[in-house]
Amino acid sequence: MKRILAMLAVAAILGLAGAAALVWQQYDELRHAALISPDADAEIIEVPPGSSLRATAKELARRGYLDSPWPLRLYSRYTGDAGRIQAGEYRIEPGMTAVALLGRMRRGEVVQHRLTIVEGWSVDDLLGAVASHEALEQTLPPDDPAALMEALGHPERHPEGRFLPETYRFPRGTTDVALLRRAYRAMEQALIEEWEERAEGLPLDSPEEALILASIIEKETGRADERRRIAGVFTRRLERGMRLQTDPTVIYGLGDAFDGDLRRVDLRTDTPYNTYIRDGLPPTPIALPGRASLHAAVHPEEGSALYFVADGRGGHVFSDTLEAHNRAVREYQLDGSRGEP
Length: 341
Prior knowledge:
- The protein is mainly alpha-helical.
- It folds into three domains: 22-107, Endolytic murein transglycosylase (Dna Ligase, domain 1, 2-Layer Sandwich), CATH 3.30.1490.480; 113-191, no CATH class; 204-286 and 301-332, no CATH class.
- It has helices at residues 2-32, 53-62, 70-79, 98-107, 123-131, 145-151, 176-196, 207-220, 227-239, 247-254, 264-267, 291-298, 322-332, and strands spanning 43-47, 88-92, 113-116, 167-170, 307-310, 316-319.
- The strands form three sheets. A two-stranded antiparallel ribbon has the order 1-2. Strands 3-4 form a two-stranded antiparallel sheet.
- The longest helix has 31 residues, at 2-32.
């Protein structure tokens, strides 16, 4: 009898040792075995809101990343991570282990999507890009800038020019309003910073006027080396009481009536944005200005030029007098002179 008991004890010890060896093997695989091979493309797995580690481990096994869900479940209970994973999309990098993925889920290092707001866009362009982004949760009615400003808590403000062009990163499920609120606040902050550091003696009475001028500069040139120079032209015209006479404001005022070809009759069409026949700045911005245009608006380059015309190569020819400007217009524009720009 004693011999049988001894044999059973040995068997039990061997069984426990075997089980321990199996557990250790599984634990070692969690720490060192890659979920996908190092030469594969990264893959995405989503943890739905309210999902448990048990369900996540089961999904990993179902998709072939794990041989079985139980080692990861056991490991997470041991480490205390079982109830600490966060919902969201997670990128499984080539060569990543299960333990590394679990740590990413615990820290909430979710996939970040991107949307780039482009300098010079209109608010309609912006709303179109937001509405078509598949990772954003859509809560706004389409093509309704007024509804956007209402949602942001500023229904009295015109929406044009209020959102800072930058690349914004966000997790899937972010609402359109949340993203646009970030861009709105970023523009407010950038404008405050530039206004506080503005040059002295500007013919601008408020940050709002600086934003309007910056939007015009943004539409007039895409060249970094010209922004402050163009700002200088507009600043001198404002100081002398000259009309700005800038095509982009006219085009903005025409709206859907503009067919891509600006004609003489358009320059005589009265809208609040026609700076050929109205004094001063237009009533609102006409586009989304970037930081460089904001800076140029409040730091205009000194000089004497009062006119400029496109040179057909992406830049402009600047002139001090109307006579010189009209010569430049005849040289660089095929449709003849319009007089002042």
